[in-house]
Recover the amino acids of this structure.
């Protein structure tokens, strides 16, 4: 139907816009963002049509008061230096961006990361009805005035088009009748509509009027007089795109330093130069995730409050990038079997508040004459850690459970069919072991757990595989005179006898996991072997298994380190039919260590992305069965050879001790 026959205004699609700098955050950078001077230029970028439609649906459910307040908040925040608020669990917005890890909070008109806190000013959203061009929306107050004028003038009707043609033929005097003053604005503007989608903002100043009057005698007869000079605006983003002209000075993106390895990476034959997809995931991030991997950091995150580069988020983003790249390798892609993985950080240190309480206690002691000070070198490190252990455990559980609840709220059905794995580094591995020792053998789905917010020392999810990186867990087990043993009732221990697995919740070292891996560098002073913690005598003949294809230092580029981890994953349990990798020196020892006979209690699906292996009953010596109950390859220790020199490790050791001192 022609727009001239419509009684009401023609429909158009409202588009939601995000600030241009948000592109840098949505790309999930591996390094801190360094804004360039152009990021404050006011350029905006539109959400996709689908994302905008979802935002608009939520917007229409808000009351008029909420809409006014939301738009007021948006403008007030844009002019202030406030810090972004942390996202809360009860707000489920519109997921946007790569991997759907950001979402639009429509009620407060802001773009927020879902699972971590944004360091910096909030990313405010705009609801655009009128645009100067595709990157510049009209301000809210002016949009409202244009909407009122549009409804009053009705430029979509044929009668107005006839009036416009007549005014153009008669000249500047007739143009005055087309003007509609925008009274509530300080700019002294009026608007002339050119058609149902285009308007012209005209200034009411004397200079503008004089120019029209002076030029009118010079126009030829029988020609239409041009409309007064002004600024064009377009009704809707789509119309602005249709009318766009190439910008004279396009806004460059924010500068984001990238690791050298990322800059120099080579594309494989026939691969287009486009962003890689998530491990087994579609490019738009809409594919269902089957495996969630939570990454728990160590102790060094205390420095992230002062130095953004230490933020664990960037390491997780780099990990995700490398995993995405490794997923294209045929050796891994061939056994993924439609498994799709997502990595999320568990930033437990941000929830741990120690400094203020300790400072108050220290002052009280000094007032009482208790002013003796001693350094970490005067005491053993591990006698100090229990001082904060309980609060650290609660902080890890709080953040991990918060992340899991938010994930399940945005991924319906995951609590029933998805799997959760943990990668824990350094002190994070010891904390994870304490939590998983007290963890129930099996958790029901999240929706079936009564009072989940009251659970503060356990995870709300079942942990399938636990990867320990650079872990001091062996020292903690030794101090407690504990040992590692599989938890009965897990995936492969349903039929295990009592000397192979224990059904004991609360015994330190009896972890509620299906599979355990201990990955370390042989020169890392913080990492320890775990095989002796299972059976010391058997471990004497079991050298750690080497992760192959090592070409650089353990403490070199993170991309290289994570790549090695993913290179070995097919050999570390992603396929239950693969033998564990060993170094050449260990091969003779491992070859004399036969795999125990297996009696399977259920059907298996052959090779595939299986971290835990099948449900199986083992036969062999007690030591052999205990190792295989913990890991389907009969060993826990895997190491990353390094080409680094001793000074690297001394430096890392001293740096780690400084972090412990600052932290404790």
């Amino acid at each position: 139907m022609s727009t001239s026959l419509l009684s009401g205004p023609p429909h158009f699609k409202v588009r939601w816009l995000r600030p241009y700098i948000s592109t840098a955050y949505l790309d999930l950078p591996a390094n801190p963002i360094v804004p360039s001077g152009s990021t404050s230029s006011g350029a905006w970028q539109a959400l996709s049509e689908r994302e905008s439609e979802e935002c608009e649906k939520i917007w229409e459910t808000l009351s008029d008061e909420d809409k006014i307040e939301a738009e007021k908040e948006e403008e007030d925040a844009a002019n202030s230096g406030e810090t972004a608020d942390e996202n809360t669990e009860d707000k489920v917005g519109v997921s946007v961006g790569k991997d759907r890890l950001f979402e639009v909070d429509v009620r407060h008109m802001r773009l927020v990361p879902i699972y971590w806190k944004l360091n910096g000013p909030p990313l405010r959203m705009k609801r655009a009805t009128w645009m100067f061009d595709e990157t510049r929306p009209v301000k809210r107050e002016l949009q409202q005035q244009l909407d009122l004028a549009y409804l009053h003038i009705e430029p979509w009707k044929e009668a107005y088009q006839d009036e416009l043609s007549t005014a153009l033929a008669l000249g500047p005097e007739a143009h005055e009748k087309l003007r509609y003053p925008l009274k509530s604005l300080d700019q002294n503007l009026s608007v002339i509509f050119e058609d149902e989608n285009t308007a012209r903002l005209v200034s009411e100043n004397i200079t503008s009027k004089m120019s029209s009057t002076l030029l009118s005698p010079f126009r030829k007869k029988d020609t239409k007089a041009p409309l007064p000079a002004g600024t064009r605006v377009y009704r809707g983003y789509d119309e602005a795109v249709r009318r766009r002209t190439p910008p004279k000075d396009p806004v460059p993106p924010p500068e984001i330093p990238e690791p050298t390895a990322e800059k120099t990476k080579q594309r494989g034959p026939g691969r287009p130069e486009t962003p890689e997809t998530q491990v087994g995931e579609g490019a738009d991030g809409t594919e269902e995730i089957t495996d969630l991997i939570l990454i728990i950091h160590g102790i060094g995150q205390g420095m992230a409050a002062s130095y953004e580069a230490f933020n664990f988020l960037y390491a997780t983003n780099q990990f995700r990038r490398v995993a995405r790249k490794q997923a294209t390798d045929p050796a891994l892609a061939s056994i993924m079997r439609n498994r799709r993985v997502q990595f999320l950080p568990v930033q437990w240190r941000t929830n741990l508040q120690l400094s203020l309480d300790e400072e108050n206690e220290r002052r009280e002691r000094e007032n009482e004459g208790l002013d003796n000070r001693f350094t970490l070198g005067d005491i053993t490190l591990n006698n100090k850690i229990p001082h904060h252990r309980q609060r650290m455990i609660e902080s890890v559980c709080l953040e991990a459970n918060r992340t899991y609840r938010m994930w399940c709220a945005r991924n319906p059905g995951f609590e029933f069919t998805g799997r959760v794995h943990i990668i824990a580094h350094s002190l994070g591995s010891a904390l994870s072991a304490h939590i998983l020792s007290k963890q129930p053998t099996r958790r029901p789905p999240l929706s079936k757990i009564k009072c989940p917010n009251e659970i503060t020392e356990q995870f709300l999810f079942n942990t399938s595989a636990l990867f320990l990186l650079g872990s001091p867990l062996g020292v903690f087990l030794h101090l407690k005179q504990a040992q590692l043993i599989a938890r009965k009732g897990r995936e492969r221990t349903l039929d295990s006898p009592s000397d192979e697995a224990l059904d004991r919740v609360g015994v330190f070292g009896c972890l509620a996991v299906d599979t355990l891996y201990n990955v370390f560098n042989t020169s890392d002073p913080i990492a320890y072997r775990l095989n002796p913690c299972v059976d010391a005598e058997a471990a004497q003949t079991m050298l750690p298994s080497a992760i192959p294809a090592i070409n650089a230092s353990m403490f070199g580029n993170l991309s290289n380190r994570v790549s090695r981890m993913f290179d070995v994953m097919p050999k570390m349990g992603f396929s239950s039919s693969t033998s564990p990798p060993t170094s050449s020196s260990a091969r003779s020892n491992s070859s004399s260590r036969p795999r125990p006979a297996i009696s399977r209690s259920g059907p298996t699906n052959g090779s595939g992305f299986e971290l835990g292996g099948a449900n199986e009953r083992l036969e062999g010596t007690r030591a052999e069965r205990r190792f295989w109950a913990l890991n389907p390859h009969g060993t826990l220790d895997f190491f990353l050879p390094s080409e680094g020199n001793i000074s690297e490790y001394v430096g890392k050791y001293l740096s780690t001790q400084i972090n412990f001192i600052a932290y404790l």
Summary: The longest strand covers residues 513-520.
